[in-house]
Amino acid sequence: MDLEAAAPHRPRGGSPATAPLPPANRETDVGNVRKNIFLVYKTLGVVFGGLVTSPLYVYPSMNLSSPTEADYLGIYSIMFWTLTLIGVVKYVGIALNADDHGEGGTFAMYSLLCRHADIGILPSKRGYSEEEPFLHEQSATAIRPSKLGKFFERSITARRVLLFMAILGMCMLIGDGILTPAISVLSAIEGLRGPFPSVSKPVVEALSAAILIGVFLLQKYGTSKVSFLFSPIMAAWTFTTPVVGIYSIVRYYPGIFKAISPHYIVHFFLRNKKQGWQLLGGTVLCITGAEAMFADLGHFSKKAIQIAFLSSIYPSLVLTYAGQTAYLINNVNDFSDGFYKFIPRPVYWPMFVIATLAAIVASQSLISATFSVIKQSVVLDYFPRVKVVHTSHQKEGEVYSPEINYILMVLCVGVILGFGGGKEIGNAFGVVVIMVMLITTIMLTLVMIIIWRTPPVFVGMFFIPFVIMEGSYVSAVFTKIPEGGWLPFAVSMILALIMFVWYYGRQRKIEYEMANKITMERLGQLLAMPEVQRVPGLCFFYSNIQDGLTPILGHYIKNMSSLHTVTIFVTLRYLLVSKVDQRERVLIKRLGPRGVYQCTVQYGYADNLSLKGGDDLVAQVMRCLKRHIAMSTDRRSSVSTEEEIANLEAASLAGVVHVRGKMRFYVGDDAGCFDKVMLRSYEFLHSICRSALPALGMPLQQRVEIGMLYKV
């Protein structure tokens, strides 16, 4: 049982803190403080990697020509207010509160919206329904949707656009997982060329690729097992870079913080006009990693992320960028290597080592975020099934996918060897970062209106400034598409095409099954046929539909002329919630024929499909079924409770078999060209993706597959 669910409810208004705590409670309280401090320490090392290493590549990504002191002051003012407004106000202050049971990212917000308004696309993928009173997550807003929620419910086009935005945000974040490791490590290793100009770019690229390969090979050990190495590295980075920044400020330009005044931004654009607007494509990189901070929410608590960002990350970045800018004001043409040039010679090599190690941590943060969003989309059935391994018993949000890991590794190495320079990667990086942020702003506005019921004035105060600011960034980075910005679009289009093909195929499959489902009356007729026998054993028959039974059942009974004495039709139901309470995980219902039951196993997208404590599906379902039989007052036969339980145990001892249907589409000559292309593409994806049953630990010798053609 989850600790949160088991904890007694503490009424508001009570003040137990006013009474002295007994010694045991004091120890517990001190332990919690230590745990929170350690959690914040780990958060520095995993969540903020891409954000805190941005000083390595922000200035080199800008295409400056004859910059002046006023230009640098304007650039610093832009970066300061970008960090403050987007980093502090938007993400730390608002977006982290739009979590779905502790999970963040665009898919988490999409599931949150679907649970509070009927705006999902597939009926089986919508959240809790009204006819399920045992699920107590329904809020008052779901009963009385807002006007905007009603608009989405009525408009299939609006619902598809919303789904497309969630998919696009996920695809862009995956692109982020490709580019962050490449640009971070490459920018760090570039520091070798300062003291050793003879080191060629191919050598730097090869060394960067080798480091990244090592990072990806470590992923299988999980975030928890490697974060103890990363956290001290990031703590050293966040301490040393602002110290160097303060030194640079005192030495080169003590008045740098006057640039905080927004009028320097206005003067910058008035003076540089079009070139100033184009430079936004480089300054946007100062906030890169904030989108991963939100997507990685499942790895750490909201409070730990907020404390770490406000107490360490934000002041560190403000001071580091101030120090870089102070140096560049006195060395206006050193922007192409804006980080290493401002490092004092005596500490150059220690800072090079720390920067390289910090770049490795930056890679880890986006890779883990990519695993999280891939897992979310897989369990929601919007992406072909890939293997997902839970690497922590304490944090179910910590996952690893071997297929995705090695695909990312190949793409990251390909980006480094293909692009070569950090400037082109930076152009692509800017497109990814700002697109994810703009999508987050739009979906967060919908959350404020539909779920939080925020007054329109406050919604406008959030939406208008951020859309203007992020829209300006989007318009600037789009000019970089021919110069490397095409890469994330290419990756996103491929991923979106895969997701759409998969979604279309699953939708057509559900439509066929609902139109040809086996009703209880039809099941009774099949079992009444003289040639059909009830054979000993316990059969778990897997079905995707709940209101009725899969048409494969009729195909199975007709061809096998038998059905086991105890047959449980199991539906694995993924709800648009983060986690399902353990007490509501397995739902049992007795069907009409003797020894036939229906079982629904419910999971949220952040739940672990591998059951805990060495338990398996059979044992858990058997316990729930016995409890259901013992408590049931709906006796549909003359069999007593004791006899029914005895029959169940005898069937289990006779042998367990897991039967699943393996369907294929039969596309006739009369089908349209679109159906032929889409369904054949779906067939290919379905043939190479993983089965759903191995995720539940079914023994291979107990699995049986029944094939059937679905004619469309």
From TrEMBL:
Pfam families: K_trans, K_trans_C. It is a multi-pass membrane protein. It is found in: Membrane. One of its GO terms (biological process) is potassium ion transport. Keywords: Ion transport, Membrane, Potassium, Potassium transport, Transmembrane, Transmembrane helix, Transport. Residues 1-28 are annotated as: Disordered. This is Potassium transporter. It comes from Triticum aestivum (Wheat). The lineage of its organism: Eukaryota, Viridiplantae, Streptophyta, Embryophyta, Tracheophyta. The gene is LOC123121696.
